[in-house]
């Protein structure tokens, strides 16, 4: 089994890639300074963002591969395992990046909002592909953070560093939204597959497997739940969970209008463990209980 390196500190990462440690909790890295390397896998205890400048190996996330070529950004969160495919040769890493420890942002607005940057949980084939202009913006943000790191530490340092990291992440959010638009045809195909999978699930599986989750459909389409959810949101204006629930309510309405079955029977058929839960969800979406809806339709 491949050895996995546990990277827990900035200094540990910097020593591995021949980088100077200017701050114990954050580093702007230039991977061209690293020595030639062979394949390795790393379990990150850090946040990281890497801008690939040339093709130099296929980056692996878990057991899958990143769509990770020149002009591509990949973001990594603590707890993720990444590495490079072993081709039997050494390679020279090239590119720029940012790594920062979770302790850097503790007590800041970024600590509260970091979960909103869902691209930290994207997986294989979900990297961010930049135009030349976008690449320049990312490099400018990295240079501003580096300039602050090279400045002597004072009472303003942490706020300015974190503010510039947040700016960089906001730009990545904008660029990902652009990417969702430029890949519209692929996204439409994904939405069609999602719709077909939902219909099939409610026809054949809901009684035995229960209420479906976003992860279930994301796995079927081979996307991470976060990327899948963001894609559905961009295409429909609704979250994937809302989309599933609206489909559920549509099926429920048809079943409720059939007087041969009790509301409890319908609830169990739709995958609810408790009829009361079904009644609450139905009323929240429709504005009345299933029994009231049945009376209105009779």
UniProtKB/TrEMBL annotation:
SMART domains assigned: HTH_ARAC
> Is Repeat a UniProt keyword of this protein?
no
Superkingdom as given in the UniProt entry: Bacteria
SUPFAM superfamilies noted in UniProt: Homeodomain-like
Q: Which UniProt keywords apply?
A: DNA-binding, Transcription, Transcription regulation
Q: Does the keyword Disulfide bond apply?
A: no
Write down the InterPro entries for this protein, in alphabetical order.
Homeodomain-like_sf, HTH_AraC, Tscrpt_reg_AraC-type_HTH
Q: Which residues form the HTH araC/xylS-type domain?
A: 196-296
Name-wise, this protein is AraC family transcriptional regulator
Organism, by scientific name, is Butyricimonas hominis
